[in-house]
Specification:
DNA-binding transcription factor activity; DNA-binding; Rossmann fold; transcription; Arc Repressor Mutant, subunit A; single chain; Redox-sensing transcriptional repressor Rex; seven-stranded mixed beta sheet; disordered N terminus; 8 helices; alpha/beta; 9 strands
């Protein structure tokens, strides 16, 4: 994703890929214009939140008309750099990592896993779901060779920080962290952590307490 200006709230930034995905659906269905209410209905996000998100980027729509679907799609495609493919690496080919390799992200957008690392693989590598998988001893060499700056981390929690330290040494810019470990990284490196167990516990809490999840 291209760098979002500091004025854009983080919550808004996180919703941008969702807007792009749903707008693609409207465009594929031949819809020419859409209102915030229609987006709200399909996305389950409050219409006022959508209007507020869009307002950060200027006049994207017209009062009484709504939003031009193709214009919005073009805007978010440029904002998210959807015309430029991004190669990423996967570190850890266990249950979750194997699922990522089978799915891969190119099916839905312009991001694709092109290489992976796992202790069970040899230095010579092996092929899993058409992706080469190498031993972690080869990580620095291969990532630098391929110019990869974004990594998906699905390793055991006890080796997550050490792996992050190694990635920082070769100046990898971003980690999508699926481990429960809270990583310490340099200020210039960005880490997005998705703790599946914590998210599940939060869902259970809301269900048991009948608390409606707020739209974030």
């Amino acid at each position: 994703m291209s760098e979002v200006t500091p004025r854009i709230p983080q919550a808004t930034s996180k919703r941008l890929p969702l807007y792009y995905r749903f707008l693609k659906g409207f465009s594929n269905a031949g819809k020419k214009r859409v209102s915030s209410s229609e987006l709200s209905e399909v996305m389950k996000i409050d219409a006022a939140t959508i209007r507020r998100d869009f307002s950060h980027f200027g006049a994207l729509g017209r009062k009484g008309y709504g939003y031009d679907v193709d214009d919005l799609l073009h805007f978010f495609r440029q904002t998210l750099d959807q015309d430029e493919e991004t190669d990423v690496a996967l570190i850890g080919v266990g249950g979750l990592g194997s699922a990522f390799l089978k799915y891969n992200f190119q099916k839905t957008h312009n991001t694709r896993i092109v290489i992976a690392f796992d202790p069970k693989a040899s230095k010579e590598g092996r092929i899993v779901s058409n992706i080469p998988v190498y031993h972690p001893d080869m990580m620095e060499e291969k990532l630098q060779e391929m110019g990869i700056n974004i990594v998906i981390l699905t390793v055991p929690a006890n080796v997550a920080q050490d792996t992050a330290d190694r990635l920082a040494e070769i100046e990898v810019k971003g980690i999508l962290n699926f481990t429960p470990a809270r990583l310490t990284v340099p200020d210039w490196m960005r880490v997005h952590t998705i703790d599946l167990s914590a998210e599940l516990q939060t869902l259970i809490y809301f269900i048991k307490n009948d608390v409606k999840d707020s739209q974030l």
